Amino acid sequence: MLRENKCSAAEINADVQARIKEKQLNAYITLSADTAEIAENADNSFAVNWDQHPLMGIPVAVKDNISTKGMLTTCGSRMLSNYVPFYDATVIEKLKHAGAVITGKTNMDEFAMGCASDTSIFGSVKNPINADFSAGGSSGGSAAAVASGQAIAALGSDTGGSVRQPASFCGVVGFKPTYGTVSRYGLIAFASSLDQIGTITRNVYDASLLYNTICDRDRRDSTSVSARSISLPNCSALKGLKIGLPSELMTDEISAEVKKTVNDAIIEMGKAGAVIKPISVPSLKYAVSAYYIISSAEAASNLGRFDGIRYGYRAKDRRSLKEMYERTRSEGFGLEVKRRILLGNFVLSEGYYDSYYKRAISAVELLKREISEAFKKVDVMVSPVYPEPPFRLNKVRSKTERYTADICTVPASLTGYPAISVPFGCSADGMPIGIQLMAERFNDQKLLSAAYAFEQMIGGGVDE
Amino acid sequence: MNDFETVIGLEVHAELNTRTKIYCSCKNEFGARPNTNICPVCIGAPGALPVLNKSVAEYAVKMGHALNCRINPVSQAARKNYFYPDLPKSYQISQGDLPICGNGFLDIMVDGNVRRIEITRIHIEEDAGKLIHDINDTRTLIDYNRCGVPLIEIVTEPDIRSSREASVFLSTIRNILKYLDISDCKMQEGSIRCDVNVSVRRKGEPLGIRCEMKNINSFSAAVRAIEYESERQFSMLENGTPITQETRRWDDHAGISTVMRTKENAQDYRYFPEPDLGYIRISEERIRELKAEIPELPNEKQIRYMNDHGLSEQDSFIIVSDTDKAMFFDKCCETGKCSPYEAAKFMVGEITKYMNDTGTSISETLLTPELLAELVSVTEEKIISSSGAKTLLNLLIENGGNISQLIKENGLAQNSDSDFIEKIAHEVIDNNTKSVSDYKNGKTNALGYLVGQGMKLSKGSASPQMLRDALIKILTEE
Question: Count of alpha carbons within 13 Å of B427, Cβ hemisphere only?
Fold first, then answer.
């Protein structure tokens, strides 16, 4: 994002706006009305002093589950189709303070539950590489916007892979930082203990700039922690780096194309001086089950507040309070959201709590121990992002198929570790395939340095 | 039914008087205009997150110390999930398996016996909003000001055996909250509320099936609810009707309870650890510091007053129930100028009467502990009579001043001069012929009246005993 005098913020904004109009991807739910004005303000700031925040005047798209004061924030749901927050999320305050131009609110799976951005009440997001394909999800709108130049960078949210997987599908970089380093204040919760705001950018360098802008300890978020800014090194971080590929993430469920991409990536890394070590994390086999139990339990509780009383959708036909609740929630939520609320309430209910929720928590504790043990041998774990290349939007799959496909991304969510998806290969359909890098908690700097070196080596990363 | 007993467990909710709410920085105050003390956090706006007000945890620790509880240096918030319009997040942030205080006890004094009531736990939680049903309309309005007002919930073991014990327990809890200055304890503002669990059994047998009574808004209502419920269960036992576990709503106006929920449709609150808050940690050092801040508590004071000063259970309870009075009384005793027992008589007699009549607190009057001590001592030394003391006390309460000067100015000094007394006695007899003949006809209580008239005549300065003797002497001689 270097543009001292090469072009103006107004020009970038005009270009982005033109691309939004040109390509109908359904990436946005709401567009900002004041982008031209904010870009002009940025240019005025540059005129006074060229030394401005790296995001000054840069068009950034924001996922529609991040609260924006005075601007519709729908979570892709009928339930919040008329909801206008009266406060800004902490990350929005930070973006505004940096002088970024918020382009609009991006489309997503309803309440961030999904992996194809096809459960939104506003329709599916189309993949910019090929509109017949899914952009991935749940932050599909943000990924599609960045991949198509409808934004220079975007914020997404990642609960079980919702930043990394769509980035991989759209051929861009998706970074989920260490849990707690970015404030969740104002992010409409799906699963509080897993939700993490992440970045979707055209390259790793941009990811570091956007991360540095939004990360910080926030006294309004009790789970937030202090974070250090990332500065990417000049020399390759791959030299001497110990990397490992957990055998549990290269099983028969991973498609041949994806396996080949990951293996090729590891060979490339080896060429650059990385030391490859075999590792195994047996409890990864519990990860998906634990993830769906915990995330659904928290979701069931978090989504209880949408009851039609204070804001959002309210059913018209109602004779009693109970009926108002029932109808509002039956009509306001989509199928997938209702499925998870039912699942979540079931695993928390008396008599089932111990055998589901408690056991899931124990499984996560085991997973944390095993993964931190594995990280004694390696600096970075490499794996697929998703078991298959981008799929067609109309592809019919069972729920369990969809759920088990989260196997590669949920481990970083359950442990709170940072992970990044970097584009590398290409499928027979001509669709991008990403690889995932994961590091230990608070090793965001190490992770991004490795990802940056890899990207430089393969000549990836688009720059303006 | 003598071999049957009532078994009672209580859950007391007390609003804490912290400056701000439990999870946000909104003001914690009663009576503000509806929906003015609110923010994204306390009205549960999507995306808003709770941050614990440390004072709330510290207040709970103080109460834990006062009730001899184990203090947990690490405790955890939990969500209690249910739908109701006054609960904007659809869950209340409370505590589950890991409360801030566990296992304690409170010793209360009931009819001369010390009763130990075990405390199961104390936990912190947030209050909900308030529904206002418009009488002219079918609408219900919601005031969210109370959302996020901090509460502690004190849960007892089923150790209480009568409505009288429950009443003493509740009053003692209220007194302790006031002594610790952690709650305003205003029943009419709903700052203390309680739920009551009642069962009955044959003595020595295992616990019976309990019913929980909700919607109890005063301690006297708790007494009535317990009495109603134990009667109801006793008569069921007598008739052989099986008692079923249920939650009942107490209607204090009608004096009856009705079924709210049976066991079959009991609420499942789906508790789980609150993921938006980490563990609540308090250092051992801070726990000790808070313990050091606990003053002598009313129940301890009461036992001291009874043991050291010989006060009765009732009198000592009256004094300790008012922090101002107890402090005043302690200071008065500390002067060492008077007998605490005599001072207590003034405290529960004339002083309490004055306070009740005028609605003032003792600290608002001009009477000081030193003045009371001096007053008691001049009475003890018979410098003034008891009725003179009453006159003097009222003067002191209203104007303060110097005791010896007041005695002089108002002629209150007890006069033991026999000529003076005799003169008064004659005057009384001359002016009260009716009472005199009543006395002579055997109505001995007429004497009391005559003594009173004499005291009045002497402006309280006559020694009542000498006056009495003089009257008897004259009347029998005549």
Answer: 15
Rg of chain A over CA atoms, in angstroms? 21
Which residue in B49, B90, B275 is closest to A220 by CB distance? B49
- Judge whether B1 is closer than 8 Å to chain A, CB to CB: no
The span from the CA of B177 to the CA of B187, in Å, is 13
Q: Under a CB-based contact definition with an 8 Å cutoff, are residues B321 and B175 in contact?
A: yes
Of the candidates A141, A79, A144, the one whose C-alpha atom is nearest the C-alpha of residue A105 is A141
H or E element in which residue B227 lies: helix B219-239
ipTM score for this prediction = 0.94
8 Å CB contact between B78 and B108: no
Measure in Å the smallest separation between the Cα of A450 and chain B Cα atoms: 32
CB contact under 8 A, A185 and B49: yes
> To 10 degrees, what angle do helices B298-309 and B313-320 make?
140
Q: Tokens 């000790």 sit at which residue?
A: B288
| 3-state secondary structure at position B422 | helix
At B54, phi and psi to the nearest 5? -60, -35
Query: DSSP of B282-295, one letter per residue?
Result: --HHHHHHHHHT--
Q: How far apart (Å, rounded) are the C-alpha atoms in residues A165 and A436?
A: 9
Residues 6 or more apart in contact with residue B10 via CB below 8 angstroms: B154, B155, B156, B160, B166, B169, B170, B194, B195, B196, B197, B222
Local structure of A318: helix, strand or coil: coil
Rounded to the nearest 5°, which phi and psi values hold at A250?
A: -130, 35
| Residues whose CB is less than 8 angstroms from the CB of residue B180 and which lie 6 or more positions away in sequence, other chains included | B59, B62, B63, B66, B294, B295
Residues of B in contact with A309 (CB under 8 A): 85, 88, 142
Q: What letter would DSSP give residue B389? A: H
Q: What is the dihedral of CA A416, A417, A421, A422, to 10 degrees?
A: 160
**Inter-CA distances, A169 with A147, A154, A172, A424, A432, Å:** 10, 15, 8, 11, 6
Q: Is the bond preceding B437 in cis, omega lying within 30 degrees of 0?
A: no
DSSP 3-state of B149: coil
Nearest CA in chain B to A190: B47
Residue by residue, DSSP assigns A222-263 as TT----PPP---SS-TTTT-EEEEEGGGSSTTS-HHHHHHHH
- Which among A301, A310, A353 has the least Cβ separation from residue B91? A301
Residue among A124, A197, A122, A111 at smallest CA distance from A394 = A124
Tokens of A178: 């260490």
User: Within an 8 Å CB–CB cutoff, is residue B336 touching chain A?
Assistant: no
Shortest Cα distance from B169 to chain A (angstroms)?
33
Gyration radius of chain B's alpha carbons: 29
Among candidate residues A355, A381, A419, A434, the one with its CA nearest the CA of residue A160: A419
Half-sphere exposure of residue B453: CA atoms within 13 angstroms, side-chain side: 18
A168 among known catalytic residues: no
Q: Chain B: nearest CA to A308, how far in angstroms?
A: 10
pLDDT by residue for chain A (464 residues), tens digit each? Answer: 445 557 899 999 999 999 999 999 999 999 999 999 999 999 999 999 889 999 999 999 999 999 999 999 999 999 999 999 999 999 999 999 999 999 999 999 999 999 999 999 999 999 999 999 999 999 999 999 999 999 999 999 999 999 999 999 999 999 999 999 999 999 999 999 999 999 999 999 999 999 999 999 999 999 999 999 999 998 889 999 999 999 999 999 999 999 999 999 999 999 999 999 999 999 999 999 999 999 999 999 999 999 999 999 999 878 889 999 999 999 999 999 999 999 999 999 999 999 999 999 999 999 999 999 999 999 999 999 999 999 999 888 888 888 999 999 999 999 999 999 999 989 999 999 999 999 999 999 999 999 999 999 988 765 54
State pTM to two decimals: 0.90
